[in-house]
Amino acid sequence: MPSSDILLNAFITLFVTVDPIGTAPLFLALTTGLSTAVRRSIAIRGSVTSFAILSLFALTGTTILDTIGITIDAFRIAGGLLLFFTAFEMIYGRRQERREETTQAAVSDRAADLAVFPLSIPLLAGPGAMSATILLSSQLSANEAINGYAAMGSLVAIIALLMLLTATSLVIAEVLDKYLGTTGKLVLTRLLGVLLAALSVQYIADGIMAFATR
Questions:
Q1: How far, in Å, CA of 102 to CA of 53, rounded?
Q2: C-alpha 71: how far from its chain's center?
Q3: What is the pTM of this model?
Q4: 3-45, pLDDT tens digit by residue?
Q5: C-alpha–C-alpha distance, residues 187 and 185, integer Å
Q6: Ramachandran angles phi, psi of 19, nearest 5°
Q7: How many structural domains comprise the chain?
Q8: The domain containing residue 151 runs over which residues?
Q9: Three-state secondary structure string covering 74-105
Q10: Rounded to whole angstroms, how far apart are CA atoms 192 and 108?
Q11: Could you count the other beta carbons within 10 Å of the beta carbon of residue 10?
């Protein structure tokens, strides 16, 4: 069984890379116009999807990427491009189309999409979280003093705890929406869109720099 220091280090590493607190305001902006129930569903689905993705990387390590010939730097660039598209929509008000949905079925379809992209990928289970998970998995597996099954089980448990905290953070974030007027929501959406665009450029730049320095 990994020591408490190792487990704490793994939790802090993943907490920083996933950043559930920093994702909360982005979640509010991305789900502008949706009901409380739909937002809660998106938060839970996104967290569960992220748990599945990160657990898969924890259990397989670098095997999947090596098998299909994809590097984590390629993930950074692809994730940055997808994130920039989302930021573009936020800045130019395309997200307001959600308010014009006339049926619950249409809203549910859109909510299912949001839970996977961009909430789960690339915001929660993005390139940073994936690479951190693979690194932690490799470190735990390489430690001869720790049983392999116990190490992987502990890492998956940490990911589960983190996603529980993430889901809670996103659900609570909805309460803040009640204190924002229409103007406040529009301003917040566009400001966060600019920040999201900058973050996406950083992802792309990191990936390109990694390729250039090889």
A1: 33
A2: 19
A3: 0.71
A4: 778 888 889 888 888 888 778 878 887 787 778 888 899 999 9
A5: 5
A6: 55, 65
A7: 1
A8: 4-212
A9: HHHHHHHHHHHHHHHHHHCCHHHHHHHCCCHH
A10: 24
A11: 25
